[in-house]
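Tokenised fold entry reproduced for everyone:
>
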Amino acid sequence: MHLIITDAWLAKSQAIYLSGTRLLVAGFVASFILMVVAAGLYHWVFLKGAREGWPVVGTLVRLVVKDEAEQRDRFMRENLDLMAKRLGEMQAKMMQLEALGERVSGLAGVSPADFKSPVGSGGALVGSRPLSMQELQATLADLDKITDQRVDLMTLMESRLFDQKIKKLMVPTQQPVVGSTLGSAFGWRIDPVNGHSALHTGLDFPASQGTPIVAAAGGIVVTQEYHAAYGNMVEIDHGNDLITRYAHASKVAVKKGDLVKRGQKIAEVGSTGRSTGSHLHFEVLVQSVFQDPQKFLLAGQNLPVITGQASRAK
């Protein structure tokens, strides 16, 4: 490309030759200068118009500012909605965790009120700064993960404690005649009928006829019959080859196959069968071997006595 420059006063001409590369560089430089000048003018005009309140420029500035504010508000609303959803999920999990804690503490014999007081915390304030949205979301995610782990742990603990409680309720630890004093103990004695030395295979609880007899533990009634020696007799299977036997009853309130609870009325004291007076003969058998029931009853001294539970009459 050739450019000829003519000076009218000096009547001189000068020829300038521009190659393709020089022309491209010159065009780029000129475009860059124009962009800088345009941006500067745009910035100056808008700033001056905004400060001095030019009608058109002021309106454009307000529209731009309003659009930016609406975008920020929309972004904040979306984040607030997301945070509110996460907060609702956390509240639901905390309620689940609190309910689990109350059930577990009940099974463990601990008062839930002992854990409701606020946990003490504090210390010197060093380098305080507000949390960013990312940090807050990360903290909520960590809390969500920890809450899930605690729920799983509490559920497992509840299951284990419930199993332990069921096992305790299936061991004959409650006295079958509430309030009665022990008469004849387990072991060798002089038989009250024939006067010979004989093994007494259970405990005798003297009581007036009609006094309620309750199940020493939960289980299933496996025998309800009249026996020549035991009279009206009830046997309850508590699992693990453990059976309790209640003899000499005047009336029976359960039948074979019934599921009974600890402390439930199953019969009434009487003097049926081989008996010299109104009393309950109580036996405990493990793998069909007679055991001293007193060992089991002493183990349940600190357990609450359950009375007055409903039973199904025969």
